[in-house]
Amino acid sequence: MSRLIKEYKTINAQDDILLFPETADNLNNWTAMITGPPNTPYEGHDFKLYISIPDAYPNSPPMVKFHREAMPHVNVNYETGEICLDILKGEWSPVYNLLYTVQSIERLLSEPNADSPLNLELGILMREGDKTAYDSLVRYYLQRQK
Amino acid sequence: MYHFNQGTGNQAQPSSSESPQSGSNGNAFSAFGISHSNQNNIITTENSGSGSAAAIVNRNTINDSSSEETPHDRTALPITLSLTGNNNNNNNNPNLNSVNAATNHILNVPRSTLGAAAAAADLALSNNNNTGNDPNGNTKNVRHYVYSANQPNADSLLHLDLQENTILPPKLTNKELRKLKDKNGLFSLRLTPFIDNVSTTNQGLYFDPIVRTAGPGSQLVIGRYTERVREAISKLPENYHPVVFKSKVISRTHGCFKVDSQGNWYIKDVKSSSGTFLNHQRLSPASTLSKDIPLHDGDVLQLGMDFRGGTEEIYRCVKMRVEINKSWKRKANAFNKEALNKIKELQKLTNGGIDEEDCSICLSKIKPCQAIFISPCSHSWHFHCVRRLVMSSYPQFVCPNCRAACDLEATIESSDSEDALSESDDEVQEDHQIQQSQLKQETDLVNKNNSGVSEVNTENENANHTGQFNIFYTSPHNNNNINENNHTTTSQLDPNVLNSLGVQLDDPKDDIDMEH
């Protein structure tokens, strides 16, 4: 628990990433806002992340999700918002922290990985190497939400 | 289903618990197990720290401060609860009985500034003493009391029943007393599993270390962890919990710890069925009240006896080591600090000057007298923090900092020679010589240990600068005997390891000779 308090202080001291606990008295649920990286179809959009901290943290990774039906991405389950990212699963190390986790997810937006698709529709396009179709499908989804 | 016992009405407010005023309404009283709240409001104060607290407080005493965050160590004291909850066990309606019990208390509680809690404790204990003669024997109403640091008349609350020949330590000065207390002025008790590898095969119940803090006059109940207890204590800070274990050989109310104003701790068996043993001596026969026996630092305490051979966890007795009043907190001396500094210096050398002060897992500083784990890649953490990681994949270890994988069971020699191979030839030869001398020392040791037995004859002539060494085995069979006899040198002398060592040396000048 004291570790989360320390992380909270570090997070408050920086202003790159918008990351904050959902309520002031509970550090087990966090919310983050990430902005779509430039030169990607996500540019100009903001995405909300829900982070819940398991009891075993930092020995177990935090559980991170996008808002459901808000993130068209090959490694994100569109319906549930579940994220497939190695450091959130087996590659987690207790040395990582929340800030690093959110930064990694932000990086995932610009570097989709077709090898572990959670979004089959986008995964197929990506495997076929049809980047234009992929990007425009993402844009279509994002547009539809507006 | 638990209550803070409000000594005086104002103590209901967590934020003002340290400044008692004369009670405006003396019967802000509560007893565990009461669910009637006609006069009371239940206030739950959430705590973002490691605990939250709820209190039943008299309506008159509620103010805004009650709903504010309650810091962990300022939870309103005293606390009282009962593990059995009522005077008649095996009853389907415990609440009703508790209410009755509570009513009795209230009737008898003098409405004085001394506080209902103190009087309640008085009553509960005297009840207990009276029922010592009760033929039914099922009325063990031993309550759990945790008082605050400045509880008056602490010693008289305890009703200590000492043996005649008990010698108590001399009275301490205030200064000496302060040393025994924690920063909140409370005495403390720590129980760790006592693991006796020598005498027995069964280990007793394993439990995480238990730390309890309590002011003078407190009485901590020892008992069995039940669903009811879980509910009762779920919102109390852990350091005020009763001492409960998940074992069926522990009676529901097994015994109690008491602490007097001098910081002396006592153990008492309250008619447990399977007994309490202090340093292997049983305190009292089954279902009999024992005297209050003083506890000393380092005592071994056993609760109950193994049932059905203790093969099932739930039937294991609890063996534990007792440490009292912060004795487990070692003060760092000059040597401790120096040792840590040396380790840090060493790490700076291997890290290329980067000073890594923090443990990257808990993000706090590594201080003297803390167990440290240093991985082969020279990263270090508190052993406490990295233990899970080490244990979960042992002997393989992947450094959480740099992801270097290493084998923690690697023998010391082979890892030396791997280092050597990566270095220049000159250094390799030096390393070989170091290895030789190490090997010689080890084999000499073996020879000494097996005087008269000469299976191993290591000739280690250093006349040759290239560093030859010869190892003679009379037979592989005999060598196995050595391995069995000398556990400490087994890994070094295993022919396979030596073989691999020879392979890894991979130096034509080295001549390894194995004769059968």
From TrEMBL, chain A:
CDD domains assigned to the protein according to its UniProt record, in alphabetical order:
UBCc_ScPEX4-like (cd23812)
UBC core domain ranges (all copies): 1-146
Q: Which UniProt keywords apply?
A: ATP-binding, Ligase, Nucleotide-binding, Ubl conjugation pathway
The cross-references to SUPFAM superfamilies, in alphabetical order and at most eight, read: UBC-like
| GO terms, molecular function | ATP binding; ligase activity
Give the Pfam families listed for this entry: UQ_con
The family database entries (InterPro entries) matched by this protein are listed as: Ub_conjugating_enzyme, UBC, UBQ-conjugating_enzyme/RWD
Where does this protein act, in terms of pathway? Protein modification
Q: Which Gene3D superfamilies match?
A: Ubiquitin Conjugating Enzyme
PANTHER family noted in UniProt: UBIQUITIN-CONJUGATING ENZYME E2
Protein known as: E2 ubiquitin-protein ligase peroxin 4
Q: What is the lineage of its organism?
A: Eukaryota, Fungi, Dikarya, Ascomycota, Saccharomycotina
List the gene name: PEX4
From TrEMBL, chain B:
Q: Where is the composition biased (Polar residues)?
A: 1-12, 434-477
Q: What's any one GO cellular component for it?
A: ubiquitin ligase complex
Reading the lineage from the top rank, the first entry is Eukaryota
Kindly state a single biological-process term from the GO annotations of this entry.
regulation of formin-nucleated actin cable assembly
The keyword Transferase is assigned to this record:
yes
Boundaries of each FHA domain copy? 220-283
Q: Which UniProt keywords apply?
A: Cell cycle, Cell division, Cytoplasm, Isopeptide bond, Metal-binding, Mitosis, Transferase, Ubl conjugation, Ubl conjugation pathway, Zinc, Zinc-finger
Q: Where is the composition biased (Low complexity)?
A: 13-27
**Chemical reaction(s) catalysed:** S-ubiquitinyl-[E2 ubiquitin-conjugating enzyme]-L-cysteine + [acceptor protein]-L-lysine = [E2 ubiquitin-conjugating enzyme]-L-cysteine + N(6)-ubiquitinyl-[acceptor protein]-L-lysine
Family membership noted in the UniProt record: Belongs to the DMA1 family.
PANTHER family per UniProt: E3 UBIQUITIN-PROTEIN LIGASE DMA1-RELATED, E3 UBIQUITIN-PROTEIN LIGASE RNF8
Report what the protein is called: RING-type E3 ubiquitin transferase
Q: Which organism is it from?
A: Maudiozyma exigua (Yeast)
